[in-house]
Amino acid sequence: MGHLQACYPEEGCGMLSGRDGIVTAVYPITNELHSTTRFRFAPREQASIFMEIMSQSDDLLAIFHSHPHSAPYPSVTDRAEHAYPEACALIVSLSDSVPQWGGYMISGGEVTSIDILIL
Q1: Tens digit of each residue's pLDDT (9 = 90 or more) over 90-115
Q2: Do β-strands 22-29 and 88-93 pair in parallel, antiparallel, or remain unpaired?
Q3: Homologous superfamily of the 2-114 domain (CATH)
Q4: pTM (predicted TM-score)
């Protein structure tokens, strides 16, 4: 959460990895677009993180990003650009004083809401 709040008012982003659906690593990534409405991973950071995930024999579990001024639901752009259908899209809204989040599986632009347990 700290990374996303530090990026405000821009969208923050990153990846979550782990095994058997349990997150064991959080990877904040620079949003190279520095946009309030879109994100794109900085390519070198993304490549380095993928190498780390593979070296740990972990799975990419989720792509996360913030919506600084809107609800935690995939935008048209989120649906079109989600490149990892096997990974959850975790979206955190920072538009209220209390952050809200939602988890989604996105494949072919279709969105399915999923439950996420945060301990």
Answers
A1: 999 999 989 999 999 999 989 999 99
A2: unpaired
A3: Cytidine Deaminase, domain 2 (3.40.140.10)
A4: 0.94
